[in-house]
Design a protein that fits this description.
- With about 250 residues, the chain is an alpha/beta fold.
- The chain has one domain: Rossmann fold.
- The chain contains 12 helices and 5 strands.
- Strands 2-3-1-4-5 form a 5-stranded parallel β-sheet, sandwiched between helices.
- Helix 6 crosses helix 10.
- The longest helix is centred in the C-terminal third of the chain and has 37 residues.
């Protein structure tokens, strides 16, 4: 691990991920990795319980860790990778809260909604385990573990955000820490690492509109799952009926 991201999700972590990859730090581990690696959920849950885990094994093949759930374990990652610098991505707290509420908190709204919606979401997990895995992980580590199940309390959530950022500033040695707003572009990042500014625009990615579009896709998959499941069952029954028909 070459770089540890300590900033909460929705502070420009996707842009940071892309920028560090451009700078040659290797593939970045981001919350979205759980979509393709649902087996990682058990690892993070074990870490949440305080069990001993193999950080080097999880991050084999990755040079960077940003976003949730990694930011919740930045202190453990600092111990596991003592040479890795830490980047704290920051944002106006009010804008951060509004963005998070309108985007990734929507996953919890789907997974913890009325019974028919929860059933649809569970069925979606049969077709795409990463969907339910990422919801389970976010619920355990983010909404419950970080925000004490009170994220909809705006004051509490913003205070948690501020407290985390202050803790990182106090805990990480100054020479190892970059406090960074992605709106600043390449300059602070490249100065921190002592590298030249790339000859390309800074990758400002994953804005609120794009994130909401992705969430709508997630809801669509969840809604389609029962239909596909029922269709598959009916098709199987029809095939069975043909085979047993005299």
């Amino acid at each position: 691990m070459r770089v540890i991201g300590a900033g909460f999700g929705r502070t420009g972590t996707t842009s940071l991920k892309a920028a560090l990859e451009v700078l040659g730090f290797g593939s970045a581990y981001h919350l979205t990795e759980v979509f393709t690696h649902p087996e990682h959920v058990a690892f993070w849950e074990a870490a949440r319980r305080g069990e001993r885990v193999d950080w080097e094994g999880l991050f084999s093949g990755y040079g960077v860790a940003v976003d949730w759930p990694a930011c919740a374990f930045y202190a453990e990652l600092m111990e596991a990778f003592p040479e890795a610098p830490v980047i704290l991505t920051v944002r106006d707290p009010g804008r951060w809260y509004d963005s998070t509420l309108r985007t990734i908190y929507g996953i919890r709204k789907v997974s913890a909604g009325p019974a028919p919606v929860r059933l649809a979401f569970s069925l979606a997990g049969l077709l795409a385990p990463g969907i339910t895995g990422i919801a389970r992980l976010a619920d355990e580590i983010v909404w419950k573990g970080t925000f004490d199940n009170r994220f909809e309390d705006r004051r509490h959530a913003i205070e948690t955000f501020r407290r985390h950022n202050e803790e990182v500033r106090c805990r990480v040695p100054p020479e190892r820490l970059l406090v960074y707003d992605v709106k600043e572009g390449w300059a602070p990042l490249c100065d921190f690492f002592g590298v030249e500014v790339p000859d390309r625009p800074f990758p400002h990615l994953n804005d609120t509109r794009e994130m909401r579009r992705r969430l709508l896709g997630l809801v669509a998959v969840s809604a389609a799952a029962p239909v596909l499941t029922v269709a598959a069952v009916l098709a199987a029954l029809a095939l069975l009926a043909r085979r047993v028909r005299p």
